[in-house]
Amino acid sequence: MNPVIPDTPTDILKARDLDVVPYAARVAGLSERLGIDLSVTVDALNAIPLCLPRDRHAEARRDIAAMIAGRNEVLRAELPHIVRRHFARLTETGRVEVMREAVAPAVAELISLLVGMPIGVEDTNHVSRIFSQSMGVARRKTLEAELGRLNAQLRATFPSSSARELGLKLSLMILGRDAMMGTFGCSLAAMAQAAEAGWNSLDWPDLPPRTGVPYIDRVANADVMIGEQPVAKGQPVRAHLADFEASDDPRLRLSFFGAGAHLCLGRALAMDSWRALGRFLTDSSARPKVLTFELRRDDVFNIPGTFEIEVSKQ
Ligand code: HEM
């Protein structure tokens, strides 16, 4: 069923009587219909706060917030070093594949610190496809295997943690990574395009100008009105957050992080990282020129698949 997309995404962000998409039940149904084992994917979906119904959501959200808070100090201390290590290439003469050489390794390092376990760039290539609604069987199996490997790595690293704690850590890996990669990749491309006179010519915005999370979905749990539009119980609705990219109003762009019960728990970290990146780059007079930029094929996130710049000095 195609989702209802209202003219103003805020209508959905403010609406009551909406539930999260029952991802776990859908994948369980698919696994039964296709006769393939997707149990690791179903378990992971059952641990992600964003996928949990109201009665189970609050507790998971509280625990994951505590997990993030527990890593706050180490993350804030490391942030400037992570930025310098991975983004210095963007201030040195030559061609740079920005996603491969800077954004992906920086995000992998941040998420590793957050979870307390080293995660390679390649280890989590498929995890966020977990939200895809148009994935073929082969990809589903690859995702299942990848999640299985991450679970095994988590169990070996934290042998005394409960299955629930490990599930929450896994959900941090899933929720943080692609949202950051996409938001930072797309926003950096916009900034680089505006910086032909040099990174230091930019007035770096407090909030990223683009989002990697172009929409969020919900399902109506009653017959409701979304703005002017009637929506029947069971019908999916979509808040098109990418619409806020056109807005100069930072309050609207804050909605890149959602709103209400499921408001992003990584917002402070993502914004601090964005500002740290701005401080570092705007200190440099190097001039970036965007050579290639193309989004990867993805029905959930906006993530550059190719993003190359040429950096020159005055
Ligand atoms: C710039 C990067 C990010 C963007 C644009 C972003 C965006 C979002 C959005 C839109 C939601 C709400 C989804 C919905 O209501 O359906 C969300 C939820 C969430 N995000 Fe982020 N996010 C980002 C980075 C992160 C990071 C780095 C973390 C981990 C530290 C994180 C953790 C979470 C969690 C745990 C939730 C679920 C909260 C809940 O369901 O209660 N996010 N994010």
From TrEMBL:
Tell me which InterPro entries the record gives.
Answer: Cyt_P450_CS, Cyt_P450_sf
Spell out where the chain crosses the membrane. none
* GO MF annotations in UniProt: heme binding; iron ion binding; monooxygenase activity; oxidoreductase activity, acting on paired donors, with incorporation or reduction of molecular oxygen
**What protein name does the entry list?**
Cytochrome P450
- Organism of derivation: Seohaeicola zhoushanensis
